[in-house]
């Protein structure tokens, strides 16, 4: 079996930023499982894994536009200070969750604190970054009908619900 659309794929990975620092790794943890072809992982990485077999290894470099996108000035949002709970210790770099109109939580980072407002950065923390992944394919199986319907993997290494 090879990595292909609608397969459940398990990978061991280490993610490096362009300065060589490790941003994330599955080492010492369960492999990362994703449902191929459903946008579970960044497009540039998924494309590079297509056709690979279990135990195969690869180093994949992904440009920002095929990863988390370029840094977007439009994703800087000004929020009134009064919108934060009083006990919030606001400081630059603090990660918070904002709620959108549909009550979904969006991760955001305090970008700048002004007199009456706070500039929140809604960009993905890895926006604008060129990423390098060291990948090893550890498992490939058929996805279940339920997983295909949900668009993600259940069970070991997958979505818990
Ligand atoms: Zn599900």
Structure commentary:
With 161 residues, this protein is mainly beta. Helices cover 8% and strands 37% of the residues. It contains two helices and nine strands; from the N terminus they run βββαββββββα. Strands 1, 2, 3, 4 and 9 form a five-stranded antiparallel beta sheet that branches. The longest helix is centred in the N-terminal third of the chain and has 7 residues. Bound molecules: zinc ion. The site of zinc ion has 5 residues, from loops. The site of zinc ion (ZN) has 5 residues, from loops.
Features:
37% strand; binds zinc ion; 161 residues; five-stranded antiparallel β-sheet; mainly beta; 9 strands
Strand content: 35-45%
Overall pLDDT level: 93
Strand-pairing-aware structural class:
mainly beta
Shape: elongated
Which blocks of ≥5 consecutive residues have pLDDT under 50?
none
Largest sheet data: 5 strands, antiparallel
Number of beta strands: 9
In which range does the helix fraction lie? Answer: under 10%
Number of helical segments? 2
Termini distance? 28 Å
Give the H and E element order: EEEHEEEEEEH
What integer value in Å does the Rg equal?
Answer: 19 Å
């Amino acid at each position: 079996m090879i990595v292909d659309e609608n397969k459940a794929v398990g990978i061991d990975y280490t993610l490096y930023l362009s300065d060589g620092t490790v941003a994330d790794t599955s080492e010492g943890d369960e492999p990362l499982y994703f449902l191929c072809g459903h946008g579970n992982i960044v497009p540039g990485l998924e494309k590079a894994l297509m056709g690979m077999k279990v135990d195969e290894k690869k180093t994949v470099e992904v440009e920002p536009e095929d990863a988390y996108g370029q840094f977007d000035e439009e994703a800087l949002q000004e929020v009134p200070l009064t919108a934060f709970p009083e006990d919030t210790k606001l400081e630059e770099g603090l990660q918070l969750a904002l709620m959108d109109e549909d009550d979904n939580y969006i991760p955001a980072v305090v970008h700048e604190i002004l007199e009456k407002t706070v500039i929140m950065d809604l960009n993905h923390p890895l926006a604008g970054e060129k990423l390098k992944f060291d990948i090893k394919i550890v498992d490939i199986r058929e996805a279940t009908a339920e997983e295909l319907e949900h668009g993600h993997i259940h069970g070991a290494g997958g979505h818990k619900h």
